[in-house]
Amino acid sequence: MKRWALALVTAALLVAAACAAQPRKAETEQTITDRARGVRYVVPAGWKFSDAEIRSPQGSLLTLRVYDLVEADKQFVAGLPETLFPQLLEWAELYYRVEGPPVRTATTIAGLPATEMTYPVRVRPKDPPSKVIYWIVIRKTRLFVMRTAYPPSGLAQDEPTIRNVIGRWVFLDTGGNDDQ
């Protein structure tokens, strides 16, 4: 009986490991259409990508979170993006030492008004400075939060590339039709 249980557990672990999404590497520039999240973006050549994130060879990471605002607290929604700022700080402090107040910049993404919040950070007190950037976009009934974290060694090379990815961003209707 013990052998059978051990074999079952081993088989389950092997199946789970095989099903885990491993990041793929884009050999050439690759366009990703994510209809579930309602976005289209371009992964630069040589970067790895998996479910709503891309990573540079230097370790910079761009992630996307999408939130449905239909059932959200009406006061919270009315106060966006400001009502999200405490959460952004909390997320930044989860992984980094935030070294000062964020810089807020008004911008646009895919023709929509957006807010960019840049936090000066370090991983450890003696590490070189770096930054974490959040972009916040409200489109129809969805809140899009893109976050980029740069290792100090990748900041200079990767920041222009990430800004190019964000600059080419496209929002889709949830039905899959382009709607800019």
* Total helical segments: 4
How far apart lie the N and C ends?
Answer: 60 Å
How would you sum up the global shape? globular
Share of helix among residues?
A: 25-40%
State Rg.
Answer: 19 Å
State the order of secondary-structure elements, H for helix, E for strand: HEEEEEEHHEEEEEHE
**Uncertain stretches:** 4-20, 176-180
Largest sheet: 9 strands, antiparallel
Question: Which secondary structure elements does this structure contain, and how are they paired or packed?
Answer:
Layout: H1 2-19, E1 24-25, E2 30-34, E3 39-43, E4 48-50, E5 53-55, E6 61-68, H2 74-78, H3 85-95, E7 97-98, E8 103-109, E9 112-122, E10 130-139, E11 142-149, H4 155-167, E12 170-171
Antiparallel strand pairs: 1-4, 2-3, 3-12, 4-5, 5-6, 6-11, 7-9, 8-9, 9-10, 10-11
Describe it:
This protein is α+β, with helices and mostly antiparallel strands and 180 residues long. It has four helices and twelve strands. The strands form two sheets. Strands 1, 4, 5, 6, 7, 8, 9, 10 and 11 form a nine-stranded antiparallel β-sheet that branches. It has a three-stranded antiparallel β-sheet with strand order 2-3-12, with no helix packed on it. Strand 8 and strand 9 (112-122) form a beta hairpin. The longest helix has 18 residues, at 2-19.
